[in-house]
Every structure is written in structure tokens, then in C-alpha cells.
């Protein structure tokens, strides 16, 4: 029995059982579609998080006040902060030859308004320096960013996001206008380009002022964090060591800061989301096993009903291995048909989700497509072995007599 004969016989047998074939293909397609959608969601989430962190800038190091490690005691004390980070601490980081830029950050929330307008809204106020534009890769739609000046100088200027501009200056230019923040006035010198959300920070709804002005506005000397850009990727790890030593020297030998590198955050999220993707894919794969059981049951029924056909093939000289190949070919064809339909349904679901949530990039990696087809084919072959062996073991005389 040639390969062509095997395929012809398998297709002929499939056509004679449309209902059973439909059930097998439906079960297999549901399993493959489930795996396709869940893998795509997990992979899309992983890529989205990684891209969000990479968009923060290159060679980024984040210095936070306080330690995240357990520092002893009973019970353990978490996040103890002996002292705040200050502007002097941020300035001292320039002692390291591996650091290209330092942007101290102070944050708070305050009502903002424009004189002569009844509208007043709450806005996030971010205090920083001219270096923030470089470190966070911010772009300007109008005007210019904070001036390059003494970090301790409190100047009454600000840069606003697009949403703030649209709400408070809907009819005219914002540049040169006065914006009231709490009980102080700041002249608008720039408007950011549409930035959207970046790791939970909405730059479209933010007001950026000099860090010294923010500290005076919120009556605080401590910094929320310090953003540092290293000169290169190899220099980033050397900069971390320098930062730790500089802060320890300034804080009386206390290692009381947490230093996070951009790479470490990206790698951590990448590992977590990859594990979650594989986990949910494994859970969805259970439906493929269920489909495989259905393939086996239907094929066993098919063997029983095709006893005479099997006996005739044996009488004409078909070997046991040829009969096994015939039934395994049927199982493989049905599994592949279900896999192709499942992938198509999964892609349709992803297309609908992309239409509903255009801001989230849905992707389906090529390796997942190949894996879905391979796993469905393997499932069909594995669960098709028992029916194939049962057919091959039939005695030709008894099969022809339907016994």
C-alpha cells in the first residue's frame, strides 16, 4: 500500500463519517484555540511590560530611599529608612565617572487652575531637573523643557502634559501663560508631546516643575527617587557599585538605599511572565488531551464498524503495519484539520480583542503556532495508536465474518 493509497483510503473513510469527523475537529479546534489565545495573551503582556521598561531610557538606574531587604529584628523590619535621599546626595553621584546624567525626582499632588477660569483640577506634580528629559526620553510638542540651572534654585516655571493643556488652555496657546499650583504661580514654558502611560505614570496629566520648587511647594527635603543614566551598559553595573559606596559614605556607613537597574527589572518581569505564559498554556493544553480522548473513542467505534473493510484489506494482502499507518493517518488528518481551524479561530479572537483594545499590542509568536500544530498532531497520533493496533490485530477470516 503506497502513501498515495493510504491517503486516498483515509480521506474516503473520513468522508463517510461526517458527524464523527465534525465532533473530532470541533474538539481539537477548541483546544488549539484556547492554547493560541492564552499563549498570545501571555506573550503580549510580556512584550508590553518589557517595552514599557525599555522606553524609560537606556542604561537606567533607579535609586530609592530605604532598603527592601529584611534588616533583622523579631519580627523582621521591612523597608527601614534611616534617612531620606536629598539633593546633595543626588549631586554627589556625579563623582562616579560611569554616570552620564542624574535626575532627582520629587512628586506630589496639588490642585491646578488658571486665573479667570472656574475649572480647577487635581494634578500630579513632578519636580525634577533639566536632565529628566534626557533620562526619560521626553519629547516636546511646544516650547522647551526645564532650563539647565542650579538644582537648588526654585524657579517658577513649569512644563505641562497634553491633557492639562487641553483642559486648562482650550482656546489659546499655553506657552507664556500663568498656571496656579496650590497657592503658587508658575509660568508655562513647554508642553510635552503625547506620552500616554509609562509604568503607571500618566505624563499627559502631569505638571513638571524644578525640583527645588516642588520641595518648597510640598514642604519637604526628601526625594521620591533619583534616576541615573549610565554612560554605557557595561558602565551601568560599575555605576551601581559607585552609587552604593557614595551614598554609604554620605549616610554614615549605612547601606540604606535600594538600587534597581533597568535590566534587572526587565529580566525579572520577563521570567515571571514567561512562566505564567507556559503555565496557562499548559492548563489550556488539558483541553487538547480531552480532544485526544475523543479521537481515540471515535476511532475505536470506527474500527468496530469497519470490521469487514479491515478483513477485506487483510485478505488482499495488507500487513499489520500498513493497517496501523492507515488509521494513524486518519487520526493525523483529523488532528491537523482541527488544529488549522483552531488557529484560525484563535487569530479571529485576537483580531477582535485588538479592535476592542487598540492600545495593547496583541501578538502571536511563530513558535507558538508551530507548537500548537505539533502538539495537536502528536495528540492525535498518540490517542490513535490504540485503535490502530486493535485494527491491525484483527484476524482476516473473523473480520470478514464480522466476528
Describe this structure in words.
The chain has 403 residues and is an alpha+beta fold. It has two domains: 185 residues, no CATH class; 173 residues, no CATH class. 54% of the residues lie in helices and 18% in strands. The protein has twelve helices and twelve strands. It has a six-stranded mixed beta barrel. The protein has a two-stranded antiparallel sheet with strand order 8-9. A hairpin with a 2-residue loop joins strand 6 and strand 7. Helix 2 packs antiparallel against helix 8. It starts with a helix and ends with a helix. About 3% of the residues have low confidence.
Secondary structure blueprint with pairings:
Layout: H1 3-15, H2 18-54, E1 60-65, H3 87-92, E2 99-113, E3 120-128, H4 131-136, E4 140-143, E5 157-160, H5 162-168, E6 178-181, E7 184-192, E8 197-198, E9 201-202, E10 206-210, H6 211-218, E11 225-230, H7 233-250, E12 257-261, H8 262-305, H9 307-315, H10 320-356, H11 366-392, H12 396-400
Helix pairs in contact: 1-10, 2-8, 2-10, 2-11, 8-11, 10-11
Protein name: Peptide ABC transporter permease
GO molecular function, one term: transmembrane transporter activity
Domain MacB-like periplasmic core: 23-245
Amino acid at each position: 500500500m503506497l502513501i498515495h493509497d493510504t491517503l486516498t483510503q483515509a480521506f474516503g473513510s473520513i468522508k463517510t463519517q461526517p458527524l464523527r469527523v465534525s465532533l473530532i475537529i470541533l474538539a481539537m479546534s477548541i483546544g488549539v484555540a484556547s492554547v493560541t489565545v492564552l499563549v498570545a495573551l501571555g506573550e503580549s503582556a510580556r512584550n508590553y511590560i518589557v517595552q514599557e521598561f525599555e522606553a524609560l531610557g537606556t542604561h537606567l538606574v533607579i535609586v530609592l530611599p530605604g532598603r527592601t531587604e529584611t534588616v533583622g529584628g523579631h519580627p523582621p523590619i521591612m523597608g527601614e529608612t534611616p534617612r531620606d535621599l536629598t539633593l546633595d546626595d543626588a549631586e554627589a553621584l556625579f563623582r562616579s565617572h560611569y554616570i552620564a546624567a542624574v535626575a532627582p525626582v520629587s512628586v506630589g499632588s496639588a490642585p491646578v487652575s488658571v486665573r479667570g477660569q472656574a475649572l480647577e483640577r487635581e494634578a500630579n506634580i513632578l519636580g525634577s531637573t533639566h536632565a529628566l528629559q534626557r533620562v526619560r526620553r521626553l519629547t516636546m510638542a511646544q516650547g522647551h523643557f526645564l532650563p539647565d540651572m542650579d538644582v537648588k534654585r526654585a524657579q517658577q516655571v513649569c512644563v505641562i502634559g497634553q491633557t492639562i493643556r487641553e483642559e486648562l488652555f482650550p482656546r489659546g496657546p499655553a506657552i507664556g501663560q500663568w498656571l496656579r499650583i496650590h497657592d503658587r504661580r508658575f509660568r508655562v514654558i513647554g508642553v510635552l508631546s503625547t506620552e500616554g502611560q509609562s509604568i503607571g505614570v500618566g505624563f499627559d496629566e502631569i505638571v513638571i516643575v524644578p525640583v527645588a520648587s516642588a520641595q518648597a511647594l510640598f514642604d519637604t527635603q526628601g526625594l521620591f527617587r533619583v534616576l541615573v543614566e549610565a554612560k554605557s551598559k557595561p558602565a551601568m553595573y560599575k555605576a551601581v557599585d559607585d552609587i552604593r559606596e557614595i551614598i554609604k559614605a554620605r549616610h554614615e556607613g549605612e547601606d540604606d538605599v535600594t538600587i534597581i537597574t533597568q535590566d534587572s527589572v526587565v529580566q525579572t518581569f520577563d521570567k515571571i511572565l514567561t512562566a505564567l505564559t507556559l503555565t496557562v498554556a499548559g492548563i489550556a493544553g488539558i483541553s487538547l488531551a480531552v480532544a485526544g480522548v475523543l479521537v481515540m473513542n471515535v476511532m475505536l467505534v470506527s474500527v468496530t464498524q469497519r470490521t469487514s473493510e479491515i478483513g477485506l484489506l487483510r485478505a488482499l494482502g495488507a500487513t499489520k503495519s500498513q493497517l496501523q499507518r492507515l488509521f494513524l493517518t486518519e487520526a493525523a488528518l483529523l488532528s491537523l484539520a482541527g488544529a488549522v481551524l483552531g488557529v484560525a479561530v484563535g487569530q479571529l479572537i485576537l483580531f477582535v480583542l485588538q479592535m476592542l483594545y487598540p492600545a495593547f499590542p496583541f501578538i502571536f509568536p511563530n513558535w507558538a503556532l508551530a507548537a500548537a500544530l505539533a502538539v495537536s498532531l502528536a495528540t492525535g497520533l498518540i490517542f490513535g495508536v490504540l485503535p490502530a493496533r486493535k485494527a491491525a490485530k484483527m484476524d482476516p477470516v473473523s473480520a470478514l465474518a464480522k466476528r
